[in-house]
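Lab notebook page, bench 4
Experiment: in silico fold of construct C2
Operator: M.H.
Input chain length: 1187 residues
Purpose: comparison with the prior construct
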Amino acid sequence: MRHTKNIRNKLKWSLIYSFSCVRPRSEINKEGGTHGHGDPSYSRIVHCNQPSHHKKPFCYPNNKISTTKYNLMTFLPKALFEQFRRVANIYFLMAALLSLTPITPFSPISMIAPLAFVVGLSIAKEALEDWQRSVQDMKINNRKVKVHKGQGIFCHNKWQNIQVGDLIQVEKDGFFPADMLLLSSSYEDGICYVETMNLDGETNLKVKRSLDVTTSIDGYQAFKDFKATIKCECPNSNLYTFVGNLELNHQLHAIEPSHILLRDSKLRNTDYVYGVVIFTGHDSKVMQNSTASPSKRSRVEKKMDKIIYILFTLLISISIISSIGFATTIQYKVDDWWYLDPTHTTDFYNPSRLFISVTFHLITVLILYGYLIPISLYISIELVKVLQAKIINSDICMYDELTGKSAKARTSNLNEELGQVDTILSDKTGTLTCNQMDFLKCSIAGVSYGIHSSEVEMAAVKHMESESIDVNDVWGKFTSDQLGDPDIKVQKKMIKEFSFEDERLMGGKWMNEPNSDVIRLFFQILAVCHTAIPELNEETNSFTYEVESPDEGAFLVATREFGFEFCKRTQTSIFVHEKYHPSGNTIQREYKILNLLEFNSKRKRMSVIVKDDVGQILLFCKGADSIIFDRLADNGKKYLEETTKQLNEFGETGLRTLALAYRTIEDSEYHAWNTEFTQAKTTIGPDRDNLLDHVSELIERELHLVGATAVEDKLQEGVPQCIDALAQAALKIWVLTGDKMETAINIGFACSLLRQGMRQINISAQNICDVKNDISLQITSASNIIDREIDPRAAFALIIDGKALAYALEDDMKFKFLKLAVNCASVICCRVSPKQKALVTRLVKEGTKKTTLAIGDGANDVGMIQEADIGIGISGVEGMQAVMASDFSIAQFRFLERLLVVHGHWCYKRISKLICYFFYKNIVFGLTLFYFEAFTSFSGQSVYEDWYMILFNVILTSLPVISLGVFEQDVSSDVCLQFPALYQQGPKNLFFDWTRILGWMANGILSSLIIFFLIIGIFYDQAFASNGQTSDKCIIGTAMFTSIIWTVNIQIFLMINHFTWIQHVFVWGSIITWYLFLLAFGNLSPIISGHAYKILEEVVGPAPIFWFVTLLIAIVCNIPYFVRSSFERMLNPMDHHIIQEIKHFKNHLKDKQMWTREKSKARQKSKIGFTARVEDKIRLLTNKLNK
C-alpha cells in the first residue's frame, strides 16, 4: 500500500540557519584534499535513485560494516601471528617441534600441551572478544529501513543491502544507515532535528536542512521519476565539512555540511525525512573516524621483556656450560663406562663424532631448561589485568550520582602505569571546571553590574579569613563557609545558569538607569545573536533551550530573567517577548534574519544580520574582547576604557568574558555586500572558507561597543582537595588551557595551584621584531633566577601564553623551556591550541623519561590524551571524543585521586610482585633440572615425570599468583587516601627496580640449590623405605617436585599482606591438588603412569622421610626471605610497614595523636595545594612571632 505522510508542521524554519557556526572547522586538506572536481579528491559521482549505474569505474563498497579484527579466513593465521610475536612463545614452539624428534628429553605431550593450553586460551580470549564485536556488527547490519524500489514504492530492507544512490526514508527516532543528502522532511521547509551522540557524544539537537530545490519533494510518488547527480569529495574523516554539488534539472546547487545526515545519527522531533545515500559502509564518516588508538605499553611490561631476555641469556649460558661438560665427559670418561658398548653407540654419545654429539646435546638441554622461561606469564598477566580493570569499573566510590557514570578502564594494559605517574597535564574547562555556565556579571555602557561573588573571589576571602583563625580549623572553614547574602544562595538554586544579583537591572528597574536604551540593546543582542532552539516546557510554561554552547544557554536564561524571552524561530525570523516596554505592555518583537556569520576558532566571534520591526538593518556581534575592540568605529569607543577595565576585573575573578557590539547598515551597503557573500557561500573549492571569512570581515567593521558579559565556569566538586592530595603524593600538575592568562591565573589560585608568596614567571610574546630571541632570553633569565635561589622553600610558578609557547616548543629551545618548567612548582600554559597541548605532552614525556598522564574532556584534548603515557577522559558535557580516545574514563576530576592513589598504587605493587614471583618460581624449578643433568654426567636426563612439568605452570602454581595479582593490598583504600605519600613507591619504582628483581632471582637460585642438594644428600646414600629400598630417579623426582610445590606456595603465602578466603583456597588448594594428582595419576595403568605407578600410596606415602624432607626444605628455603623481611621491618622499615604495624596493634585507635603525627610525616613536601598554602602561612606567622 502506498504510504504518504501529509504531516506538515506550518512553522517555517530558517533556511539559512545552521549549527555549523559553532562547530570546530577542520582543514579539509588534512583528510580529504582541498582541490576542485578536476582533482581525484573530489571524484565521487552519485547517480541518485539509480544505484545500478555505479559500476566500474564507480564501484563503491556496500553498507555492511565490520569492526572485528578477524574473519573466518584470517582468524587462525592472524591470531597465531599475534601469539607468536612474543619471543617466549616462539621459543616454546621450536621446543615443541623438536620434542617430536629423538633428541628431546621429554615426551612430545609435555612440551606441546602447555604451549597449546596457553596459546589456545589466549586465542579463545581473542575469539570471544571478536565474536562479541561480530554480534554487535550483525545487529547493526540487520537493522531495517525503507528504501525506494522504484515506481514510488518504498520497502523495508536491511542496512547491509543499501547502495550508493538509494533513496531512503528514515522515520522518527530512527538511525541514519549511511551518510545521506537530506532531500526533504515532514516540515514544509525541509528541516529536521538530529542527535549526534554516537558521533561526538553531544546530546544537544542539531538542525539539518534540505536544499531549496528539493524541499518540496514529498510523498512516495514524488520520487518515482526523481533523477539527479551528486559530485562531491571522496570519503574522509571530517565530520564537520562537506564539499560537493547537486545537479538537478541541469542546474548546480552547492551542498553544505548542514545538508548532510551522517550515519549513526538519530532523527529526533521530526516525523520522517527523505535522503539519498552518498557514502556507505566503511566510506561513511563515522567509520572513517574509527581509527585504532595508539598502542601503549607500561614501563613494567617493557622491563619484563628485558627480564625475559636475561633469562634467555641464562638459559643459553647454562646450556653451553652443560654442553661443554657433556663434551668433556664423552671425550675422556666414556671409555671407563664398561656398561656401554662403544661399538654400538649413536651419534648422541659418539666420541668420534664429537661435534655432532655436542650439537644434539645443546639442542636437548635448550629444550630441557626451557622451564626457566614462564610459559604462562603472559596469559596470567592478561587475566589479572582484566580482573583489575573490572575492580576499577565496579568501584562505587568513583560513581557519579549526578550523571550516573562510573569509572571505566577502557584498556587493561596500563593498570600498573597508573601507579607510576610523575606529571599530570590537565585541561581546565570541563576538567577542573564544570563547563556549566552561570551568568554572574556584566558591563553595560561602561557600568559594571552584578554583586554576586565568584568561586574564585570566595576562595580568596576564605584564604584571608584563614589568616586570623586557628590553623586546625582552616580546612573545615574552607569547605563550609558561604559568602554573600543567603537569599542569593536560594535564588542560585532556583534558577539554573543564572546567579546574577543586582537590583539595578532586575524587575525592569533597568529602565530607570541613565543608559536604558543601551541596556535594552545589550539584552536584544543576547536574545537574537545565537543559534539556539526554543522548546516550551508545558509544566512550567517557560522556555528551555537546545544550545551547542553552554555560554549561549546562560545568556538566554539571563535575557529571559531580564524580560527579553526568546520564544520562537521561523523560516526567516526570531521572535522575542519583551516584558518591559515603554508602553507598559508585553510585546512580541520580530527580527527578520538576513544572514548568520559563523563562529569558528579563527574568527572568535559570531554575528547575525537582522531587520527589526521598523525596517532598520542591524548587525549584532559577540566575541572575544580583543577581536571586537579591533573592529570598533572611532565613534563606537565611547565605553571602551571603562569596559576594558571591568573586563580585566572580571578576568581576575576567574570569569569568562565576551564583548558585545552592533552597527547599523544602510540598505544599499547591505545588498551589495550580500551579493558578494552569496557568491562566496556557493563557491566550491579550497578557497571557500577563506572567501567567507574575507567577506565577513567587510561587514563586521565600524562597530559600536555596547558592553560585555561575564559568566562563571564553576570549579568541579572536590577539585582543590584532589589537587592537594595529588600534590602530597608528590605529583606535578600542569594546566593547559585555551583561556586567557588572567582567567587561568585566577583559576590556579582557586585550585591552590598558585598561592600568595609564590613567585610567578610570566613568559609572553612581545610586539617586537625578534620575538624568538626575546622568548629565549626570558627563559634563560627565569632559569638563572631559580638557580640563584637559596631558600629551599621558595616556590616558582611558570605561566606562558600560546604565542610564546609556539617558539618555546621549537627544537632549539624546547629542552631549555622544559628544564625551566620542571624546576617550577606549577606550570600554566594559556591560549594553547590542541596541537600545542599534544606537543607539550610529548615534550614532557620524552624529555623527562617519566610517566605522564593527560586528562581532559573535549575534542581539543584528544591529541594530548593519545600522546600521554596514560590518557584520562572525563565524561562531561563537551562530548565523548575525549573519552573515546582515552585509556581510562572518569566522571569528575576528583575521582582522579582515588584512581591513582588507590588503584594505581595497588595495581603497580600487584603486577610487580606477580612478575617477580613468576620468575622466582620458574628459576627454582628450572635450575633443579640443570643441577640434576650435571649430576648425571650431563646426560640430558630430566628428573621429573613429563606430566609433572605439564602441570607446574598451568595448574599447580597458576591460581595463587593470579589471586596475588588481583586481591593483594599492602594497605586499605582508606589508608592510601590518608597517606598519599605511599603513592611515591610507584614513581620511584621501589618494587620493580633491578635490585629487587635480581634479589628475587638470587632467592630462586638459592632455593633451587637448597632443594636439590638436600634431596640428593638425604636420599642418595641411604635406604628410603623401611624394607631397605633405595631411591630411584622417579622417587627423587617426586620428592624434589613436592618440595618445590610446598616451597613456592609458602613463599607466596609469606608475600601476601591482605588475605581473603580466595587466597587460602588457591594456595592450600594448589598443594592439595598436587597430592590428589599423584594419587590419581599413580592409579592409572602403568602404560600411562610408568614409573609413577601407585607412587603415593605404596612408595613415598608410607615413608616418613618423604614427609619430613618436604617440611624441612619448605622451611629452610623460606628462611632467607623471612629473615630479610624481618630485618627490613626492624631496621629500615618502609612507610607501609609502619602503617601495617600500627593497624595490626590498633595503635591508631589507642593513640590518635601518634596516628595524626604519622600521617603528617608521610606527606611529601609540596609547594602547591591548600596544605602548602596553610604551611606557608604558618611559617610567616612563626617568623613574625620570633621577631
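Observations: The longest strand covers residues 433-444. Residues 1-40, 466-493 have pLDDT under 50 and may be disordered.
Next step: discuss at group meeting.
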